Amino acid sequence: MDRVNQPTLRAAVLLYVYFAAMAAGMVELSLAAGYLAGVGSSTAGMVAAGVATLAAGLAFLAWSLWGLHRNALVLARYALPALAVAAAAHVAVMAAGVTTQRSLDVSHFAALGLTLMALAGAGWLRRQHKTNDGGAHGQPRTGRLLAAAFGAAVVVASVATPGLAASMAGQHAVPHGEHGQAPTGENGQGSNPALDPGHHH
């Protein structure tokens, strides 16, 4: 790739990394809610898993927000091993679930995919930084960067959405069509007196 396009590619990959890490953090937090407030949350193992996923989720969010603010790959020396450990943990949990329950945990699978996206992108950026700047000090092309950011957001959302929906928080979420609706009575009509045809002032 020529030196003119390299800054745009680096900026696009940086956005991709932090979008994936941010989404992974949100999925981790939803998993933590399930561990800490779901069935069997009083056991020591569930509490430990909940605390670990909560810490991972907060760390992912903090790292992504800080990196987006700095517009650079921050704490790469620690972030890459941490991402690898998180990915290995999700693989272990999924393997245990498949072995004992014969089922695949969609939330852990989504978190694994997002973590691997961030890990791959961060590894590429770090390798580019170590070899040469490749024109990294130039200015990225705005149009191409916006297109890349949109594409990265779509890809990340397509992985994160099923994971969030499969979590305990997603299963208890109010459907979009029911926001703001009044509770229904026995006859299926809303309980708001102002909307009751038989109610008169």
What's this model, at a glance?
With 201 residues, this protein is mainly alpha-helical.
How is this fold's topology laid out?
Layout: H1 6-37, H2 44-70, H3 76-101, H4 106-131, H5 142-166, H6 168-171
Helix pairs in contact: 1-2, 1-4, 1-5, 3-4, 4-5
3D architecture notes:
70% of the residues lie in helices and 0% in strands. The protein has 201 residues and is mostly helical. Helix 1 packs antiparallel against helix 2. It is elongated. About 8% of the residues have low confidence.
Major beta sheet summary: none
What is the residue-averaged pLDDT?
Answer: 79
The number of E-state strands comes to 0
Question: How far apart lie the N and C ends?
Answer: 75 Å
- Figure out the total of helices: 6
**Cα gyration radius (Å):** 22 Å
Strand proportion: under 5%
Question: Helicity range of the residues?
Answer: 55-70%
- Class derived from helix and strand content: mainly alpha
Q: Helix-strand pattern, N to C?
A: HHHHHH
Q: Please mark out the parts with pLDDT under 50 across 5 or more consecutive residues, or reply none.
A: 182-197
Rough shape? elongated
